[in-house]
Specification:
190 residues; Immunoglobulin-like; 11% helix
């Protein structure tokens, strides 16, 4: 019985070690001497899905990216960050579960330590997403209400994850969220 307990403990310890190693992938930036910080300056919080709705020609906002040193030794070109892509995913905040498919877009920006860069004109929905769930249900020909919540709007957070690496090869990332309401014929984008 003691042998079985010892083997079980060894197996549990091995699984814990494997789990710990597998978590140290792309999303681990603790070894990097700098942090990438992403924040959003939002200008639109309501998207009117009606064709030609007022105020819908502008941008959602700007994502501000900044590289901040973790300590005073984080200086030089090797700690500059090359931002290579962003990933967009969604989380419903209204109790519904249907969301658009996530996607990734490539970008190429280098940000020095203590400097910042702005990401403007970024995409929050891929083409055709408006004609798919959950937005399609809001169109008048489809009933005008979300079948999951019974409401005439869909509330969700757009999660934008920014990925890059220092010129020295350390991964860095951050994410920011953009709360948005989607509706049809609701006084335009605001």
């Amino acid at each position: 019985m003691n042998r079985i307990k010892k083997k079980l403990l060894i197996v549990i310890a091995a699984l814990a070690a494997i789990t710990n190693l597998s978590c140290n992938g792309e999303l681990t930036d603790s070894a990097a001497p700098v942090e990438l910080i992403a924040t959003v300056s939002q200008t639109i919080s309501q998207i009117d899905l009606e064709s030609g709705a007022g105020g819908c020609t502008g941008t959602i906002g700007t994502i501000n990216m900044q590289v901040v040193p973790k300590n005073s030794t984080a200086v030089g070109n090797l700690v500059s960050v090359r931002v290579t892509r962003y990933r967009v995913s969604y989380r419903r905040t209204d109790g519904g579960t249907l969301v658009p498919a996530p996607f990734v877009r490539s970008i190429d920006t280098i940000i020095g330590v203590g400097q910042s860069a702005a990401l403007t004109g970024f995409i929050i929905l891929e083409g055709g997403a408006i004609s798919q769930a959950p937005f399609a249900a809001l169109l008048p020909q489809n009933g005008g209400r979300d079948p999951e919540t019974g409401r005439d709007r869909v509330k969700l957070e757009v999660i934008v994850e920014i990925f890059g690496e220092t010129l020295g090869g350390d991964n860095v990332f951050d994410s920011t969220t953009i709360p948005l309401d989607f509706c049809f014929d609701c006084q335009g984008c605001q």
